[in-house]
C-alpha cells in the first residue's frame, strides 16, 4: 500500500475512530488504529505479535481491526472497491474462449480455533475447523465479490443458495451492468463460472456432467477445467 492511499483511508475514517484523551491516558490516534488493522488484514501475524509491534494490548488490536473493517464496509466500499473496466473483463474472458463472462466463483476454507462445544458445526469434510469464504474473481484474479459467515460443515452449494449473490441473480443484478449478447442466434446473458457441484441457471455456467463423449463437449470441459484451475490458484 502506498503512503498516499494509507493517509487517504485515515482521512475517510479518522473522524469515526478518534477518541478523547482521559485521565487514564492518551487516546490511540486514528492513523495507528488504521495501521494495526491493515497489518492484521494483510498478514497472518497473530494479534499478540501485532500488539507487541505497536506497543498495544491484543484486545486493542482486535477492536481496532473490527472497527476499521466495519467502517470500510459502510463508508469506503463504494469509493475504493470497484471494477475498473467492465468491458475489459468480458473481453479478456472472451479471448480465453468464454463469451460474456463477468467472473468466476469459488470457495476456500479459512482455518480457525474451534469454539468449545461447536466441533460438529465448524469441522469441514477434511476434518479441521474452518469458516468458508466464497468469492467471485475477474479475469485477473481480483476479487469482485466476497461472502462469509458460514461454518466449515456447510456445503458450498447451500452457502451459495443462501448468499446475497443468489438474491441479486434472481433480481437480475448480477450482470454488473453488462448486456446480453447473441452468439449464432442464441442469446447469452452475462454469466458467472462455477464448478460442477453448483446448479445450472441462466446466469451460471458449469462444465458438462456425466460421461461426456461428444468432441465439442470434451473440448469445452477441457478449456473450462484449465480456467477453473487458474481461479482456484487465487486462494493458494
Could you provide a short overview of the structure?
The protein has helices spanning about 5-15, 30-40, 45-55, 60-80, 85-95, 120, 155-160, 165-170, 215-230; strands at about 100-110, 130-135, 145-150, 180-185, 185-190, 190-195, 205. By secondary structure, it is α/β, with parallel strands linked by helices.
Question: What would your notes on this structure say?
Answer:
- This protein has helices at 3-17, 30-42, 47-54, 58-80, 86-95, 119-122, 156-161, 164-170, 215-232, and strands at 101-111, 130-137, 143-151, 181-183, 186-188, 191-193, 204-205.
- The chain is of the alpha/beta class.
- It folds into 2 domains: 3-80; 86-235, no CATH class.
- A hairpin with a 2-residue loop joins strand 4 and strand 5 (186-188).
- The chain is globular, with a radius of gyration of 22 Å.
Tell me the layout of helices and strands.
Elements: H1 3-17, H2 30-42, H3 47-54, H4 58-80, H5 86-95, E1 101-111, H6 119-122, E2 130-137, E3 143-151, H7 156-161, H8 164-170, E4 181-183, E5 186-188, E6 191-193, E7 204-205, H9 215-232
Parallel strand pairs: 1-6, 6-7
Antiparallel strand pairs: 1-2, 2-3, 4-5
Helix pairs in contact: 1-2, 1-4, 2-3, 2-4, 3-4
Q: Give the helices and strands as they follow along the chain.
A: HHHHHEHEEHHEEEEH
Q: What average pLDDT do the residues reach?
A: 84
Give the distance, in angstroms, between the N- and C-terminal Cα atoms: 21 Å
- Assembly state here? single chain
Taken from the alpha-carbon principal axes, the silhouette is globular
Strand content: 15-25%
How many strands, which pairing sense, and closed or not: the largest β-sheet?
5 strands, mixed
Count of helix runs: 9
What is the gyration radius calculated from CA atoms? 22 Å
Number of domains: 2
Let me know the number of strands: 7
Main sheet: which strands, in order across?
3-2-1-6-7
Q: Uncertain regions: pLDDT < 50 for 5+ in a row?
A: none
Briefly note the structural class of the backbone.
alpha/beta
Helix percentage: 40-55%
InterPro entries: HARBI1-like (IPR045249), HARBI1_dom (IPR027806)
Pfam families: DDE_Tnp_4
Main location: nucleus
Organism: Alligator mississippiensis (American alligator)
Amino acid at each position: 500500500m502506498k503512503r498516499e492511499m494509507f493517509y487517504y483511508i485515515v482521512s475517510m475514517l479518522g473522524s469515526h475512530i478518534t477518541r478523547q484523551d482521559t485521565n487514564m491516558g492518551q487516546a490511540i490516534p486514528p492513523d495507528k488504529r488504521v495501521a494495526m488493522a491493515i497489518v492484521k488484514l494483510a498478514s497472518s501475524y497473530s494479534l499478540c505479535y501485532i500488539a507487541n509491534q505497536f506497543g498495544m494490548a491484543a484486545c486493542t488490536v482486535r477492536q481496532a481491526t473490527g472497527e476499521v473493517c466495519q467502517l470500510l464496509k459502510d463508508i469506503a466500499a463504494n469509493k475504493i472497491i470497484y471494477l475498473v473496466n467492465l468491458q475489459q473483463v468480458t473481453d479478456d474472458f472472451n479471448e480465453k474462449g468464454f463469451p460474456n463472462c463477468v467472473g468466476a466463483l469459488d470457495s476456500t476454507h479459512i482455518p480457525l480455533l474451534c469454539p468449545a462445544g461447536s466441533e460438529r458445526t465448524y469441522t469441514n469434510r477434511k476434518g479441521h475447523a474452518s469458516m468458508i469464504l466464497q468469492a467471485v474473481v475477474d479475469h485477473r484474479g481480483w476479487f469482485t465479490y466476497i461472502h462469509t459467515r458460514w461454518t466449515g460443515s456447510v456445503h458450498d452449494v447451500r452457502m451459495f443458495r443462501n448468499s446475497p449473490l443468489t438474491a441479486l441473480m434472481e433480481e437480475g443484478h448480477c450482470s454488473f451492468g453488462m448486456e446480453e449478447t447473441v452468439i449464432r442466434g442464441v442469446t447469452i446473458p452475462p454469466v458467472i463460472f462455477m464448478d460442477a457441484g453448483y446448479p445450472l441457471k441462466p446466469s451460471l455456467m458449469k462444465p458438462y456432467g456425466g460421461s461426456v463423449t461428444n468432441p465439442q463437449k470434451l473440448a469445452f470441459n477441457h478449456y473450462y477445467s484449465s480456467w477453473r484451475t487458474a481461479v482456484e490458484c487465487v486462494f493458494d
